[in-house]
TrEMBL record:
Record's keyword terms, sorted: DNA-binding
Organism lineage string: Bacteria, Bacillati, Actinomycetota, Actinomycetes, Kitasatosporales
Portion annotated as DNA-binding: 30-49
Gene Ontology molecular functions: DNA-binding transcription factor activity; transcription cis-regulatory region binding
Pfam families: TetR_C_16, TetR_N
Keyword DNA-binding: yes
Span of domain HTH tetR-type: 7-67
Keyword presence, Ribonucleoprotein: no
Position of the signal peptide: none
Cited InterPro entries: Homeodomain-like_sf, HTH-type_TetR-like_transc_reg, HTH_TetR, Tet_transcr_reg_TetR-rel_C_sf, TetR_C_16
PANTHER family registered for this protein in UniProt: HTH-TYPE TRANSCRIPTIONAL DUAL REGULATOR CECR, HTH-TYPE TRANSCRIPTIONAL REGULATOR RUTR
Source domain of life: Bacteria
Annotated source species: Embleya scabrispora
Protein name in UniProt: TetR family transcriptional regulator
Amino acid sequence: MTSRNATATRQRILEHARRQFARHGYTAVTVKGVADAAGVSPNLITRYFGGKDGLFLAATRVELPVENSVDGDRSTLGARLAASIVRRWFGTSGEDPLLVLHRASGERPEAAEALAAFLDKSSLEPLHRYLRGTGLPDAEARDRAAAIDAFVLGVSARRRVLRAELGDPAGLRAWLATTIQRLADG
């Protein structure tokens, strides 16, 4: 590599780290293994991320645009959320940081805590606010949001974490849309 591009190198390291954490879990991944895969010195990982824990935290930084999917009529919420979910599951390049965090949550208590806090903030609360805003009483809106959140997390665990086939994207989207809509409608 003739030119040094710290941003590109850091990104390459993160891509390899996500892939390895997603496939092998936290415990089995080594700094040296990620460095070798990324074609860099292990010292660079220490320099950029402070070590394995910092690398893991950077590799599992997640964005979940639920807020973008809840705008609109409640009668089409299932279709909007299902489209967003399937797009993420089939369209995320490399390994999805959310998937990495989900898989690691069984090994590392801090990963489980981070996943729970992230889902509360980025999924459960926006859904709760949205459903309450559509006229549902607060407790009912919270219960329906929790049901949708648990359903999607369960499907994600079964189909992504346990590495079952996701199936046909269109079929999966239709099934998710119907089920999410039933949960939203009560």
